[in-house]
Amino acid sequence: MGEKMGGQTGQYPVSGAGLGLRRPIMGKLMKDPPTDVDFMEVAPENWIHVGGKAAKNLRFFSERYPLLLHGLSLSIGSPAPLDEQLVHDIKDFMAEHDAPMYSEHLSFCSDDGHLYDLMPIPFTEDAVHYVAGRVRRVQDILEQRMALENVSYYAPTDTSMSEVDFLLAVLEEADCDLMLDINNIVVNSINHCYDASEFLRRMPAERIRYFHQAGHLVEAEDLRIDTHGNTVDDQSWELLAEAYEIFGPVPTLLERDFNFPPMEELLDEVRRIKLVQAAAGKSVAANG
């Protein structure tokens, strides 16, 4: 078929607005592949070594859209040994599907066994050195840079450093990239009482590869749960617009993991990302 949508532009692996590819919506997307979606993202662990019809279905999308990989289980902050076999499998998977980049959560999800949740890494200098060393090893195996995502968390285990200082220190020492989750900034800023805009403005522009945008659950006025099962709220849209004002219209992926609305409603959120990007682009041009 013809050239894929949303190809690489400069420091960004893709352009425009993307959608997380999840199995419950694959059938609908295959019947009518959306032209408003510029790229897609999958968790490689869900697809590595998968064959048959499922593999053919994934190939349907990777032939039409740039496919980014966002890991769930590398557990970069775990005390357990790094799963180097998984990294090698991811490298092969990237080559198989011509995926331009791989990202993971700045968290851990395993020790002696899998914890089935993303746990916060202690915000300490020792943890910075430990995590950065593991990231460098992953990059050595992949033979390319990876990106880390700022994660939502609810009960920090050690706050010797602030969240933002810890994140910046890991990125610097590991010399890796950043996949910035806008909704996670909103969730954490409410749950841990800090200024979302101030956090955003401290992010290193040169390390940003793309954004995530998602919805969260309002459990209470001072408690938000990062569910990826809700529509994006006004605060997250406002912070995304501010992010574009600061960094330009960075490629942005809509995450929705369950509780899927009708497809047009889901695609409307992707289109809204594109509208906010376009508005930011016009603002930059007008001020340029």
What order do the helices and strands come in, and which of them pair?
Layout: E1 17-20, H1 23-31, E2 39-42, H2 52-62, E3 67-70, H3 84-96, E4 102-105, E5 108-110, E6 114-119, H4 125-142, E7 147-149, H5 163-174, E8 177-181, H6 182-191, H7 196-201, E9 208-213, E10 217-220, E11 223-225, H8 234-247, E12 252-254, H9 263-287
Parallel strand pairs: 1-2, 1-12, 2-3, 3-4, 4-7, 7-8, 8-9, 9-12
Antiparallel strand pairs: 5-6, 10-11
Helix pairs in contact: 4-5, 8-9
Total number of helices: 9
The total of beta strands comes to 12
Large-scale geometry = globular
Query: Compute the gyration radius: what is it?
Result: 18 Å
CATH secondary-structure class? Alpha Beta
Structural class call reads alpha/beta
CATH topology-level name: TIM Barrel
Strand order of the largest sheet: 1-2-3-4-7-8-9-12
Helix content: 40-55%
Mean pLDDT over the full residue set? 91
Number of domains: 1
Assigned CATH architecture: Alpha-Beta Barrel
Major pleated sheet: 8 strands, parallel, barrel
The topology string of helices and strands comes to EHEHEHEEEHEHEHHEEEHEH
